Amino acid sequence: MELDRVGIDVREIGFRFGERQILRGISFEARAGEVLGILGPNGAGKSTLLRLLAGLLEGDAGTISLGGQALAQQTPAERAKITAFVMPVQSVPFAFSAREIVLMGRHPRLSHRWLDASVDLAVVEGAMERMDVADLGDRLFSRLSQGEQQRVLLARALAQQTPIVLMDEPTSHLDPAHALAVARLCRDLAREGRTVVSVFHDLNLAARASDRLLFLKDGVVAALGPSDEVLTAPILKEVYGIDARRVEGPTPQVLLEEP
Amino acid sequence: MRGLGARRFALLALGLFLVAAAATIMSAFMVPEGESFDLAVALSDPESTARLQWDLLWPRILNGLLVGAVLGASGAALQGLLRNPLADPFILGVSGGAALGASAVAILGWGALMTEAVGGFVGAFLALALVTTMATRQGRLRPLDVLLIGVIFNAFAGALLMLLQSLGSSDAVHRVLLRLMGSLATDPSQPLILPVALGGLSILMVSLVWHARALNVMALGDTTAQSLGIAPDRVRGWLFFTISLAVGAVVATAGMIGFVGLVVPHVVRMIFGPDHRVLVIASALLGGAFVVLADGCVRLLSESLLTELPVGVVTALIGGPMFIWLLRRSEGEAWS
């Protein structure tokens, strides 16, 4: 599949919720073909930043542009053809099957059409195979384990076939094997020319999945750079207040140490 | 959603079969004991008793189908829009608002069917707008609040209705009371009843089918809907508007008929699953069949009770226990 290459350019973005300034002066770029991992302590503004990129929230300062076009000027329908957003698992009040959930990823292309086209069904099956949920298709989404639900939501984002994929903690409920599979998925998506921005909690998984890491702390960028340059003990000390020891390897890994 | 094509035909066949069966059963109930009803005679001989019966019968069946279809489809859509399996035009106060609007118009003395239908629509829309606005906090619609506020609003609307009725002239009051209790009997002096209901249903069904996929996504919440390219507030606003239009029209013409919008979509989901593309159409068909059947029971019972029960009584007597059964069956898991 040919994809347009669409990078993300964020300039001086800020976001305020009531009296609280959640994010301020955030600037960075995510290029087509790279994975940008976002890390930071709880409440640092990671999910808010991701929602701003997805156009689900509107900032009160700065600009975000996708492929040179201002995000604020796109309609939701246009945006959904460019950006897929994998959000944390949520409850579904009706008995949709896993396949029906994945098929919703085709909504931006089908919207008012009553029948599904076979091409859409094929995309759905492909996405489900890729996320190892093909055999769960007829099961009720609400009866799946959280890890399975997370993979179904990832499949839905793949079915959207967008040049930008945003993920909010895509591995929080996954076992190590499936978490590693998601890290691989991130790399594969980037190799296909997509832009991947993902929030992680697991430092080592983030390093494995990402080309560059962005550390947020108290709503500002604390560090930004290639994974092997910023995943360092001093930066982790500054961002999380933890002591860590770095282990060199093909991708750097860190071990947490008791204070 | 796989196999939707094959399912669609099974669905239409089943729906039409149910409706046809309901109509036939009801036509049998309509005939006083000792007489027989012959459709062929009714259609060929304009002077016959059969023709007289037929002229009373068909508008009533048609009215039942239209009213039931509006209530069934509205209930299905509201449940998805509010992500709440308990939503229905009756519980959310839409019917109450419509009744209030229609009776206000009647009691104030501007009564005519059209103005009452308009009053019903205005009342329904204001009720839905009020309930959803009050249930929105920090820009988010809270499904549980919608329900609670709807219940309160209904009680409030009921009190206002009684107030209006104690203020109005006895003639108008009696007429409005009868209407609100729910009856599908059409008055030949009001030839607009069926066209008004048909108009409401048509607008409703076109917009529900047009937005059926969006309804599927919105059942997962506004954030998911937005991320998949839907403007949830816009879709919700438009659908609330058309639901109010249709429910306002049928409450103004047939009164408050409860439980149809609540129970029918659940039964349809059990059979066809939660996909709104099928759900809204099947709920309309089954809702129509349910109301026609309930009206058949009304006719049947009126023979022995020597008075005609309001059709809302029958839908409640059937729908209430059925809903409790469905609730217990679901065991707190996702609604089928």
List the helices and strands and how they pair.
The complex is a heterodimer of chains A (259) and B (336).
Chain A lengths: L7 E10 L2 E11 L4 E5 L6 H8 L7 E6 L2 E2 L5 H7 E4 L11 H6 L3 H4 L7 H13 L15 H14 L4 E5 L7 H16 L3 E5 L3 H7 L2 E6 L2 E7 H4 L2 H8 L2 E5 L5 E5 L2
Parallel strand pairs in A: 3-8, 3-9, 6-7, 7-8
Antiparallel strand pairs in A: 1-2, 1-4, 4-5, 9-10, 11-12
Chain B lengths: L3 H27 L8 H6 L4 H33 L12 H17 L2 H22 L1 E2 L2 E2 L1 H25 L2 H12 L11 H18 L1 H7 L3 H6 L4 H23 L5 H13 L3 H30 L5 H20 L6
Antiparallel strand pairs in B: 1-2
Task: Please tag this protein with its features.
heterodimer; A: 259 residues; alpha/beta; Rossmann fold; six-stranded mixed β-sheet; four-stranded antiparallel β-sheet; B: mainly alpha; ABC transporter involved in vitamin B12 uptake, BtuC; two-stranded antiparallel ribbon; globular
3D structure, described in words:
The complex is a heterodimer of chains A (259) and B (336). Chain A is of the alpha/beta class. Chain A is 34% helix and 27% strand. In chain A, a hairpin with a 2-residue loop joins β4 and β5. In chain B, a hairpin with a 2-residue loop joins β1 and β2. Chain B has one domain: ABC transporter involved in vitamin B12 uptake, BtuC (Orthogonal Bundle), CATH 1.10.3470.10. In chain B, strands 1-2 form a two-stranded antiparallel ribbon. In chain B, α4 packs across α5 and α5 runs antiparallel to α6. With 336 residues, chain B is mainly α. At the A-B interface, α2, β6, α3 and α4 of A face α9 and α10 of B.
Find the CATH superfamily of chain B: ABC transporter involved in vitamin B12 uptake, BtuC
In terms of DSSP E residues, the strand content of chain A is 25-35%
- Count the beta strands of chain A: 12
* Number of domain modules of chain B: 1
CATH topology of chain B: ABC transporter involved in vitamin B12 uptake, BtuC
